[in-house]
Specification:
This protein has 346 residues and is of the alpha+beta class. It has helices spanning 3-14, 26-35, 41-54, 58-62, 66-73, 80-95, 104-107, 115-126, 135-145, 154-167, 173-186, 205-208, 269-280, 325-328, 335-344; strands spanning 225-235, 244-245, 256-257, 260-263, 286-291, 297-300, 304-315. It folds into 2 domains: 3-214, Endonuclease III, domain 1, CATH 1.10.340; 225-344, Nucleoside Triphosphate Pyrophosphohydrolase. It has 15 helices and 7 strands. The strands form 2 sheets. Strands 1, 4, 5, 6 and 7 form a 5-stranded mixed beta sheet that branches. A two-stranded antiparallel ribbon has the order 2-3. A hairpin with a 3-residue loop joins strand 6 (297-300) and strand 7 (304-315). Helix 2 (26-35) packs antiparallel against helix 8 (115-126). The radius of gyration is 24 Å and the shape is elongated. The chain starts with a helix and ends with a helix.
């Protein structure tokens, strides 16, 4: 089996027409790779186009405020990627004269750039023969070559990296790496791949031994924690409300939200109202408390399941540090809060 040539030929015939593939400049390649971590191309593409329009160069991004970067990122999730993106832009612009490192080893020194991203940029932008290893690569190689190693263990990465490196044509590193990613995304998909049309079906160990659904092997499962969030939309007598910035640790750090009460279970109005009253303090006259969503909004993260209620608390006085809705809409929010705002305030 001539794995590499078959794969590259498939890629050249089937690859999607994507804007970051029209250039080898490291800036758009880097931007696309960061965005597509844990994000499908269909979801990431509009964000990529908006970012390129807002920040045509790495210097433009570096000179933008972090809140603008976070606002444009809103909805892509894993917001540490956006903060690292901005930090890397400043690193490249202010410490490296606007020029990305031109090697895998140099790219690894950038904030938020790990093995996979560094390998992708190094091969695509500079032709360096270093293989990418991600979920798509695990899946393709595990199935085609029948590898039973548990991909949840750190030592397994070396097995796949060495195999990928041995298969990579040194003079076609960019095509090989992109072909691996594209083949895993379009053909060798996680569930119910169409093996009947696969270019490797005559040689694929998983297909020929009935193990397609079992490979790659991943034994370790991350425990999911349930959390119960109660957001308080305070409405003063001017119709203004309050938002706060989350701290520097935990989920969504650095983004904005309504005042939050976290409880051990999803509480009723009779249970939440005293907590809201205590939160507002004795000097504020609480008039009404209304639950704005009849059922909790369920928001799933990689390791947490959030049960979210939105409570409106009206007071009969003007409060300090309150904002009107147009001002609030300019802040970067977690997507679940952004969606609530869009649904309740036109």
């Amino acid at each position: 089996m001539d794995f590499s040539n078959l794969l590259i030929q498939w890629y050249l015939q089937n690859k999607r027409d994507l804007p970051w593939r029209k250039t080898t400049h490291p800036y758009p390649v880097w931007l696309s790779e960061i965005m597509l971590q844990q994000t499908r191309v269909a979801q990431g593409l509009p964000y990529f186009l908006r970012f390129i329009e807002a920040f045509p160069t790495v210097n433009d991004m570096a000179n933008a405020p972090e809140e603008q970067v976070l606002k444009l990122w809103q909805g892509l999730g894993y917001y540490s990627r956006a903060r690292n993106l901005h930090a890397t832009a400043k690193q490249v612009a202010f410490e490296m004269g606007g020029n990305f490192p031109n090697s895998y080893a140099g790219l690894l020194k950038l904030k938020g750039v790990g093995d996979y991203t560094a390998a992708a940029i190094a091969s695509i932008s500079y032709g360096e023969a270093v293989p990418v290893v991600d979920g798509n690569v695990y899946r393709v190689l595990a199935r085609v070559f029948g590898i039973e190693a548990d991909i949840s263990t750190p030592s397994t990465k070396k097995i796949f990296a060495e195999l990928a490196a041995s298969l990579m044509p040194v003079d076609r590193a960019a095509d090989f790496n992109q072909a691996m990613m594209e083949f895993g995304a379009l053909q060798c998909v996680p569930k119910s791949p169409d093996c009947g049309i696969c270019i490797f079906n005559q040689d694929c160990v998983a297909f020929n031994t009935g193990r397609v659904a079992r490979l790659p092997v991943k034994l370790k499962k991350q425990k999911v924690t349930d959390r119960f969030f109660n957001y308080i939309i305070i409405k003063d007598n001017n119709g203004h409300t309050k938002v706060t910035r989350r701290g520097e640790k935990g989920i969504w750090h650095g983004l904005y939200e309504f005042p939050l009460l976290e409880t051990s279970i999803s509480g009723s109005e009779s249970e939440i109202k005293p907590q809201i009253r205590a939160f507002l303090g004795d000097n504020v006259s609480l008039q009404n408390v209304t639950l704005l969503n009849p059922e909790p909004v369920i928001h799933k993260l990689s390791h947490q399941k959030l049960h979210i209620n939105f409570w409106e608390a009206t007071v009969n006085e003007a409060l300090p540090e309150m904002l009107d809705i147009e001002a609030i809409k300019k802040y970067p929010f977690p997507i679940v809060i952004h969606n609530f705002i869009e649904a309740h305030w036109d």
